[in-house]
Amino acid sequence: MLKFDMDRQEKVTFWKQASKSDLETMELIFAGKKYSDALFFGHLATEKMLKAVYIQKKDEVFPAIHDLLKIAMLSGLKMDKETKDELEVVTGFNINARYDSYKHEFYDRATRQYTTRYIKFIKSFIKWLQKQI
């Protein structure tokens, strides 16, 4: 449980562990062929690792947003355009999997092939983020 009296490293460790847990959940859900839900957990895992990076670099409370690209930019991360574009897509997994008005369309788009592509990106990006800490 995240506590306000934790020091910076404890907070970073908390968010890294939370990200790892969500990655494991993503893998289990993917194996169960619930592809849109797997992508949702991929978004959560990415967001939590970005929070770890933000805290490590800024030593302050991160903004209450779910926009992955914005968190990355506020963290001072340097990324190429392709990575930025992919982060914008992954940010959409949060909204598309959460809200009923988007779920059906997202469910249809989240095929095994599409999901596999983005899980590969998510894992690669999170590994890169771990190196930034």
From TrEMBL:
Gene Ontology molecular function: DNA binding
SMART domains xrefs: HEPN
Classification via InterPro entries: HEPN_dom (IPR007842)
SUPFAM superfamilies linked to this entry: Nucleotidyltransferase substrate binding subunit/domain (SSF81593)
Domain named HEPN: residues: 16-125
The keyword Cytoplasm belongs to this UniProt entry's keyword annotation: no
Pfam families with a match to the protein in the record: HEPN (PF05168)
Keywords, sorted A to Z: DNA-binding
Name of the protein this chain belongs to: DNA-binding protein
Lineage: Bacteria, Candidatus Shapironibacteriota
